[in-house]
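re the bet — no i am not wrong, look at it urself. input seq straight from the record:
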Amino acid sequence: MPLAQAGDIELSYERAGSGPPLLLIQGMGGTYSHWGDEFLGALREHFEVVVYDHRGVGDSGRVRTPFTIVDLANDAGRLLDALGIQRVHVFGFSMGGMVAQELALADQHRVATLTLASTSCGGPESRPARRGTLDRLADPNMSGDRERAMQLAWEINVSAVFAENAEVRKRFLEVGRHRRLKLTVLGAQVQAIAGHDTSSRLGSLRMPTLVIHGTADRMIPFENGQMIARLIEGARLTLLDGAGHMFFWEIPERAAELVSQFVESHSDKLTTARLRPA
């Protein structure tokens, strides 16, 4: 995959599809392959979709020092600069939703619409993961049992009902086997998330915003999505009954439809342009 120079870090990325640019920002432990082919394929019918790996992930530049969510947001902005994208629709998932919040707060003109999926604004009133959830994920990772770690990631990140879907589970596990993440990077992402708090600043956002959250999310309880929607004036909240954290694996076509319909409903207010050819 191609590399883009984002400041002093190279980021591995992929762009495909036709239409206005849409930047997808992945969550903790995820690579751009973790979006899943069905979700990406559906989005590419409506957008030129840009996906990338965070610093230290996949073929992106190595992590040498601790980093913050703001650092990751700066990476995303510099990637857009390198690709010549001046104005963009943004979809941020989980940790990527935190990055998307900081990207939007740093440059409101750049973000045409903002979709925040299965994420949190942090702060003292946010709701943490259910007790034991993160511990279950940490144990096999720390022991080096990657296969068990991937199995648990699947079980915890989708709803209990969907976790029994053997065909989709197999595809998800294959992604993890081919694109592994170092424990040092995962630990740095955990630290970055711990320091995330936009709760006092989200009220300043003025771009059209969609908040999507599954009611069966065990990683980031859906009350966090409700909180974000309350803090951002005019934000639209869509709760997906019975869906888990990675709802775009459970209902990929529906998830893509939500995003495309939301963007199209605000198309008269948007201008998408490029700074220069990529």
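see?? The longest strand covers residues 9-17. told u. also Residues 269-278 have pLDDT under 50 and may be disordered. so pay up
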